[in-house]
Amino acid sequence: MKKKTALIVLFVACLGSLNSQNLLKGTVLSSVSENPISNVLVRIKNTTMTTRTDTHGRFVLEVLKEGTYMVEISDPEFETQNFKIVFSTGVVNLGTILLFEEYLQVQDLSIITITDDELNADSNAADNISGLLQATKDVFLRTAAFEFSASFFRIRGLDSRNGKVLMNGVEMNKIYDGRAQWGNWGGLNDVLRNQEFSNGLAVSDFTFGGLLGAMNMNTQASKQRPGTRVSYSSSNRSYVHRVMVTHTTGISKKGWVFTFSGSRRTGKEGFNEATTYNASGFFAAIGKKINDRHRLNFTGIFTPNRRGKSSPNTQEVFDLKGIAYNEYWGGLHGRKVNSRIKEVAEPLLMLSHYWDISKKTSLQTNIAYQFGKIGNSRLDFNGGASPSPTYYQKLPSYFLRNNKLSEAYTAQENFMDNGQIDWWRIFDANSTNATAALNSAYILYEDRNDDKQLTINTIYNTAINNNIALNAAIEYKQLNSHNFAEVIDLLGGVGYLDINNFAKTAAQMQNDVANPNRVVAVGDAFKYNFDLSSVLIKTFVQAQFKYHKTDFFLAAKFSKTTNQRTGLYQNGRFENSSLGPSEVLSFTDYGIKAGATYKLNGRNLINVKAGYLTQAPLLRNSFSNSRENNNIVENLQREKALSIDLSYIRRSPIITARVTGYYAKIREATEISFYFGDGVGGDNTAFVQEILTGIEKKHMGLEIGIEAQVTATIKLKAAAAVGSFTYANDPNLYLTSDRTNEGVFDENGRSGDYVSNLKNYKIAAGPHNAYSVGFGYRDPNYWWVGSTLNFFSNTFVDIAPLTRSSNFYTAEDGLTFPNYDLDLARELVQQEKFDAYKVVNMVGGKSWKIRGYYISFFGTINNLLNTAYKSGGFEQGRNANYTQLKEDKALKKPVFGNKYWYGRGTTYFLNASVSF
Amino acid sequence: MEINKTTPWILVLVTSLFFNACVQDGEYAVPQNLGAEENLKLAGMLDSIQNNQLELKSIKDLKRLCVSGKEPVKIVSNIVVKGYVISSDAKGNYFREFYMQDAPENPTAGIRIAINLTNSYNKFNVGRVLYIRLKNLYLGEINTGDGVCTIGGKVSTTDEKEIESVALNQMKNHFFRSDETTIIVPKEVSLAGLNASDIGTFVCVKGLVFPIVLEGKAYADPTEDFDTQRKIQTCQSVGYANLLLETSSFASFANKSLPMGGGSIYAVVAKDYNGHFLVLVLNTSEDVKMTDERCTTRSESDFPMTLLSEDFETASGEVNITDWINYREEGTKSWRSYSDTYSQSKAARIGSKNSGDAHTSTWLLTKGIYLDGTAEEFLSFETSNSFANGSDLQVLISTDWEGTVATVSRAAWNVLPAKIVANGEGYKNWVHSTFVNLSAYTGTGFIAFRYRGSGNVYFDGTYELDNITIIAK
């Protein structure tokens, strides 16, 4: 990455000094456009001294002590440069420094599949952390972001909630599930380029971070590059068209600076059928320099977006309809109309105050408010047959199970010819009912989370001397999340009866006892209605020490979380436990971490980090059935995590490499999942919540990244992740349901206690092993190409814990199934391992400058060989016992087989941009 | 920077046009031409009927093709049946079946359709006019011998004497809905008078109560896996007449308590799964309107006069009673006296099995009974049978018959709502007719017991008749 060029001649020590201060000065320009580059990091190695360039590309750094130093000038989009300087006294002016674009990195992050996968965030398998990584230059991490992410690769096998995403130092991860909602700033790539990523337990100046690290985006208008940038992109992955326009003014004489950005992304469908894309993005940042010490910055972000979702499917369905098949749409008005749309519209307003108390001390204070809605639409049908075209009774396997060959054939023909939602039938049913003055059979509704979140925080940074820096922060956060279902469309009907048909009595059928048998219309809340509130207070302190041979740091955090549910409906199934406030859940957490880097010499480093932290249970995992009642997960515990890693880093002019070994252990984790279970206590079928507590997980492995600048124009790189992510104990399990006194459920709808024998099962965390080799060629005439070959293995299906509990072998009478065969059982609960696969990606581009316009083109092709591969999947909870699983697995085509996501076939992304 | 001042803004303008680019991702408007295609298909079919390419058959005629207990009949000719839907699975009381009758009002026949469709109520709603093109569909029984003639899609793979539902894929080629939905006027019937010919029709029964022992019980017994039969009784008679109300455990009102007042029930006439009894099946519990006072019954001792009494004890050979007529309208079989071994009593018997006759129609006509001398009169009798699948027995009354064989066919005969032994009843058992109120009739009334055999060698059964009385006050 480092490129020492003839520019070193620019290193000229200016002699004439007027004061006793040692100043380092310079101006950084882009080699292509010759425009100044702002916000470039200028750092004196082995010290805490850093600064960034201003909008004119200029920097000035005060150096306190005389001596010989290495200066590093770096920016995520450009190649890093290093200079050796000798200070005696006075000013060292580096003059004009030209930075070369890091060609493999101008690919903007939109080509990574961040927001696509996050659409399916309700499922465990689809969880992507690539958004975190765009700011890093580490070969391994960039490979993970650009090459591995489409395979749902997870760094260290950890959930993305272990990575903290910050905007101006304010944490943006959702309190509900701990994950960042990337859609909330999607399409604003131009203005979110100022990012810093701290990998793993490494230090961040803003936060303690999580096990995966922390990424901070700086949106200050004064840190944006002045000028205008217009770009257009086209792709067949998720959106088809994207335009972005961004403009930043220079700083006015009165100290004002403005940045505006707008974007629009549209598409009728991406790789998967009917995955519509309808997103806009608006951004405004207004900066005001009050005086040399005080600056204010306001940021407003609004990125309303609507995306059509796609379904996971069984192998039977993929075999018949192909890997782009999506069951959620049906033909209507000559279009593919998707019934499941995720809409995110959560405006964010943030006011930041930057106070340079002294040259060495700064205090940043933010107040942020976010509000709006997240909606996930779907069909509801308490008066109609299931509209799902893949409903098990419509597929050939269902008929084959009963040996009805001709019916199976007809079902297959029918599924292949149609196999989509029949909107016409839905409208016909509703208008038939309307004519008969009956309520609608079907409606379209959305599950809503309307959050209001206020955050106030203060971040303090000070350099005690050249070698010691101190960071501290305190944050107060308050969330009120209103959760309910809302009718979107009556689909030709007149009204919809708000009852749960599966309940036994008329009283139990009520979702809202205060309004029995209510008929709802468009815009009405129904089904469930509750508030979740959360108050979070957290602090963090950190000390960083940087010396010639060793760097080290120590950090600690402390936080207090208070969560509560307030039911707004009295639910007929839980009359006494649904309305009003729940018990208050209070948790105190702490975390400590430390790390050290020992420099064997300038080129070989050894780094070690360790941390231990506790984490209050997520809101999501605190209430066992939050839609229906106030019940709290029994014996709810804080999650505890221990993480250690050891790295060897080599930085030579030709080879840059890092090898890291890591070990993380998570204890007392809680997980809740929901499904329709057959064979829960013998032969019964019920919608259940499965609560798994006291889970222990072990994540260990190696990360390797090597990059070699073979010639001035050719670069080779290789990366490998070899991991083992397993359950480390047999956690406790119980089920809850709104069925009472039935099957395994007692009068409160709770099952008995089970132990799920998960120990040594693999965690579904994408491919445990991923390898990549590739090259890049950069022509002096500003064009470049690159290609990588990637290999993935050890991807596992997400297992159903109930199937690994005593429920599996227990018949309704409480005894073991009479025909229970231990060997066969062992075979049945074997975890599916997906086939290993290879993916080839290509990238190329060209840029040039014409009369002040900087023009750039680039394109990527992913999965050039059109490899079909399973990127994730899960076992369906329907076959919860031995008899049923045995019957189903004995079939050639199982009726309730595992559901999968397939990776995309060959896709392209093209981009053209102009800046001036 | 030396740039043309306008160029960038043109660029910005052009790109901003994209901001209006529209993605139609939330349009769920009702299609304008909803149902148009179906109407067109129906119109085509009606034309074909007009042109005699298709034959429209009545439900009654169609049901004649059903032979209980035998292999289903595959329809090979171009016939179409028209009906009015009368059942609804909206409340879960029907599963993958519905009934339709031949007229919205005063139906004469109804039929069951087995279909692999749940929530069929939102397609085949009550009152909907439906045409079914029958070619390649089947007529038969779902449970062999259950006596409920049903339209199905195929022969069962497990029992060749049974049919299975019409599959979803078959539906579009056979079922044609008119866009017309009519109002179904329930046919008023008396509880005792229901018989097999009423199966598949929508009726109203008045003056009902649930027996007092059912107080606190729900429509369905929670320990039943499938259906529960609850006894219903009427006070319109002397003593109680009973019938069963059948409710599925899956009905949404299954756990609702039975009302203990008196009143009426609107329901579809059907049979229990085994075909042993007639039952009433509800579309919704709202069709049970029993909030009035419970009625009280009257006993036989309230009626001291006897206008007619015949126990056949003195008869022998062909029944020959003074002023009665034993009339063979068709066929060679007469009513004959016989001695019942189980009841140790003599009775009248008729059956056309093995007669070789194409049709049998034999009447046993009583003497004239003067009805104007008393205020209220009740007829009762007992029946028994053996293998009566293909035949039937009716009790009728006429007040304008002249009393001669020659004029039987000219007289007006009304079917009386008496309970007559059902096929499936044990052959040893005698079934009481219930007390049939004759107060509505004036002048001189003649009671007739008419036996009809279908001519089928194997199926025509035997009926036995005894203890005919008319009491009065």
From TrEMBL, chain A:
<keyword id="KW-0998">Cell outer membrane</keyword>
<dbReference type="Pfam" id="PF07715">
    <property type="entry name" value="Plug"/>
</dbReference>
<dbReference type="InterPro" id="IPR012910">
    <property type="entry name" value="Plug_dom"/>
</dbReference>
<dbReference type="Pfam" id="PF13620">
    <property type="entry name" value="CarboxypepD_reg"/>
</dbReference>
<keyword id="KW-0472">Membrane</keyword>
<dbReference type="GO" id="GO:0009279">
    <property type="term" value="C:cell outer membrane"/>
</dbReference>
<feature type="signal peptide">
    <location>
        <begin position="1"/>
        <end position="22"/>
    </location>
</feature>
<dbReference type="InterPro" id="IPR036942">
    <property type="entry name" value="Beta-barrel_TonB_sf"/>
</dbReference>
<feature type="domain" description="TonB-dependent receptor plug">
    <location>
        <begin position="110"/>
        <end position="182"/>
    </location>
</feature>
<keyword id="KW-0732">Signal</keyword>
<dbReference type="InterPro" id="IPR008969">
    <property type="entry name" value="CarboxyPept-like_regulatory"/>
</dbReference>
<protein>
    <recommendedName>
        <fullName>TonB-dependent receptor plug domain-containing protein</fullName>
    </recommendedName>
</protein>
Automatic annotation (TrEMBL), chain B:
<dbReference type="InterPro" id="IPR043744">
    <property type="entry name" value="DUF5689"/>
</dbReference>
<dbReference type="Pfam" id="PF18942">
    <property type="entry name" value="DUF5689"/>
</dbReference>
<feature type="domain" description="DUF5689">
    <location>
        <begin position="56"/>
        <end position="288"/>
    </location>
</feature>
<protein>
    <recommendedName>
        <fullName>DUF5689 domain-containing protein</fullName>
    </recommendedName>
</protein>
